[in-house]
Amino acid sequence: MRAKTSIAFHALQARADDEDVVPPATVVKEVIVRKPRSVANVLFGAALSASVLVSTGTSAEPLKISIGYQPWWAGGVSADVIRGLGPALWKKFLPADVEVDFQASPQGPVIINNMLAGKQQIGYMGDMPGVVATTKQQMADIRLVAVTSFSAGQMCHLLLVRKDAPAFKSPEEAVQWINGKVVAAPKGGCTDLFFRTVMKDAKIEPKEYGHQSVEQIVTNFRVGKLDAAVIPDFPRAKIEAEGSARLVATGFNFNLPDAGVLTMRKDFMDKYPEIARAWLKMEMFVQTNYLIDPKKWDEVAKMAVQQNPGYTVEQVKASLFARIPANKGGAPVRQTFPFVFDDQVTAKMLGAYKFLNDIKIIDVDKPRDGAIDDTLARQVATEARTKLPLGEIKGAATAGK
Predict the structure, then answer these.
(1) Residue 125 shares a structural domain with residue 233
(2) Domain range enclosing 131
(3) pLDDT single digits (tens) 38-96
(4) Of 254, 289, 311, which residue constitutes the final position of a domain?
(5) 304 forms bridges with which residues in the sheet?
(6) How would you label 163-201 residue by residue, b for 16+ Cβ within 10 Å and e otherwise?
(7) Number of domains in the chain
(8) Which residues of 263-282 are buried (b: 16+ CB within 10 A; e: fewer)?
(9) Do 13 and 54 lie in a common domain?
């Protein structure tokens, strides 16, 4: 098992090409140190030329798989754990000649573009980017193969208002206050779906609805240029800790759940089925033995902080394991781990296809045959005699105090 042992990354804003899935795109530079090999720089994005899907596994040239993930996002934190545990975990599941290359990304569309170009074979992303990825089969066949997390709208559907906004008696009152205000959310993702749906149902019109990156939203709250925004966790916890904005509602208040999904290229699954299966076994192991186990939460948070400069252990734990107070939209259960696309998650995904079609991000309103393909995940769970769902996180009752 070969490992890439350290990482430093930064995001640069770049103009998207017409072929990009959800503009604007972001270019990420990841500097990775291999031992005992020399330093290798991996620069991925629109400027890169196409690369080989997976290198040929031989004694001289190991089999290399690349994984795209968003280390700052609560719904895909299992990837943080898999990366953080490193070869000590990988060698228990993957063949010895497999080289694992994690590539950190600021947003799902970057992962989509890299998977479509053959630069990544496995991707961790939210429900919306996952749906988009399955609709580009003329470029590459990407499948939704497992569920990394599911919640009642506690991971991505988080509505914040500026720090000096009035004290609201209810989430509905907070939404009405948004009428005529300057608001924002990242475009075409779970945040966008939530905000558009809530505003439409409440029959309100903001003065300005901007599509901004998470980084822009954080900055604009700090400088007082935003009245309200919807963002995911971890950034929500960071903003509240800084005091520049506060949480007033979640998807739970409006019956709008959210999910994290694991995607794979179909040609990778066909060529290396045992590696695809092994990865799903590893994913199930992490969900069961780390995310659901309170004794491992400190370790999980520390691994996430190592991959997210600027965040604290307390902020990460608030994002993952602390119950959101009921007066801010907290649900009785923070996250669940179905692992496969059960009826509840499937209903969520079908709604995502329709929404993205309605706003003209994709040209279909339902998944094509095979787009949602959790066959391997179900086989892995059955062979392990594992009961599904895997479990849940209710969260610490003292959250938010």
Answers:
(1) no
(2) 4-151+258-393
(3) 322 332 333 223 333 444 444 447 899 999 999 999 999 999 999 999 999 999 999 99
(4) 254
(5) none
(6) eebeebeebeebbebbeebbbbbbbbbbbbbbbbbbbee
(7) 2
(8) bbbbebbeebeebbbbbbbb
(9) yes
**DSSP symbols for 301-356:** HHHHHHTSTT--HHHHHHHHTBPPPGGGT--S-SEEE--S--HHHHHHHHHHHHHH
Same domain flag for 145 and 190: no
CA dihedral for 88, 93, 97, 100, sign (positive or negative): negative
Chain centroid to CA 54: 24
Of all residues in the chain, the percent with pLDDT exceeding 70 is 84
384 shares its domain with 300: yes
Q: Does pLDDT of 291 surpass 70? A: yes
Q: How far is 80 from 277, CA to CA, in rounded Å?
A: 19
Q: DSSP H helical segments within 186-296, as ranges? A: 190-202, 214-222, 235-242, 266-271, 273-286
Distance CA 231, CA 252 (A): 15
Tally the C-alpha atoms within 13 A of residue 333's C-alpha that lie toward its C-beta.
12
Secondary element (H or E) of residue 10: strand 4-13
> In 3-state terms, what secondary structure has residue 74?
helix
In this structure, how many other beta carbons lie within 10 angstroms of the beta carbon of residue 289? 13
The whole model's pTM is what? 0.85
State the CATH number of the domain containing residue 244: 3.40.190.10
Judge whether 127 and 133 are in contact, CB under 8 Å: no
What would the two tokens of residue 64 be?
A: 């290399």
Answer yes or no: do 142 and 281 share one domain: yes
| Residue recorded with tokens 């963002």 | 231
Give the position of tokens 């307390």: 314
